[in-house]
Amino acid sequence: MELGQLLREIKEDGLIKASLSSPAEAEGMEKVQIRPVRIKNRDLWQITVFQNSQVFHSNCGIDETMEKIAEWTGAPFRQVQLESIHYRGTVLTGKKGTVTVKKKRKGGISESRATTEKPVLSHNRMRNYIIQEGIPADFLVELSVMTKEGIVVKSRYDKFRQINRFLEFIDDVLPSLPDKKELRIIDFGCGKSYLTFAMYYYLHERMGLNITVTGLDLKAEVIHNCSVLAQKLGYDKLHFKLGDIAGYKDDSGADMVVTLHACDTATDYALAQAVRWGASVILAVPCCQHEVNRQIHCKELAPVLEYGIIKERLSALVTDVMRAQLLKEQGYDTQILEFIDMEHTPKNLLIRAVKRKGMQPAAGGKKSERLAEFLQLDTTLQKLLRS
Hints:
Blueprint: H1 3-13, E1 15-23, E2 29-39, E3 42-51, E4 54-60, H2 62-72, E5 77-84, E6 87-93, E7 99-105, E8 109-110, H3 138-142, H4 157-173, E9 183-188, H5 194-206, E10 211-217, H6 220-233, E11 238-242, E12 256-263, H7 266-277, E13 281-287, H8 291-295, H9 302-305, H10 308-329, E14 332-338, E15 349-355, H11 367-375, H12 380-386
Helix pairs in contact: 1-2, 4-5, 7-12, 10-11
């Protein structure tokens, strides 16, 4: 079998992944890994090049991807492994230039015995995570979520899924961010910063966007550790600051504000600051919503509020509804979405707010005022937005 024939048949069957290794030259590219990705409703193939301890990413259509594989086969790479829906292909180049091309049907059946059935391209496709297992992401290796070979540590798989889910939300809002030389992103209450690092890795290292990301937290040790890791990874525009969300001052503003699991009313201070800045995108996963639980009072709901656990859960939902409605009234299109499955954490709702053109207020008046009056509430976010 010729190389060109193998590439055509792998392409027609549906390329799932490819790896190119064993470079013939001592310097230059060390290996290449290829996988399918879906970006803005387009099916593309991500080409990851490992070169001189650095990683470079590009996204290409299938034709350009196959052309690159053909170009790199033999020189510089002596070993090429391809996988499609039904087949595995191998190309080996000897030291004297001899090329061996093999193709086998999955399950160990040789090509000579393979059926000629037309492949079903949707068959058995793995979920296309933005960060996929098998391709090392430097920050995940350092945070002990992945091994150096790109294998997800079994006990950290929930964290791996959470990171990918968060990046899907980020990917969805990219068209809503302003087209400017440098985007400013602030993560209020960044904590250990798994998602902060993920955000920087995806937007800057993978997408090539010019961004500055700032993580803010109250814990000095956390900020120190995150700063050291950012420096080690060479993430030059990822910075961490020690401070309280409520007292944070920065006249530069932000294009996107993220606040994940900031406790109780800290979320409200982050949301209010984002509104004052006129941030284009707000992503918030609230936590520990105690304020409404202390205030809520309604004669009509007395039988419901009589039970502590029901009152607590209802108060948490009402808190997030109030926040979402207040953001709508400030000129944002707002959604409340499931972040990750409830089985992994009860704090699984994400408020996503995207600024409307001109920040026009929502139609329908002040629904938040009517809800607050009905439940006898005066929340922190209400007060901050009034001031």
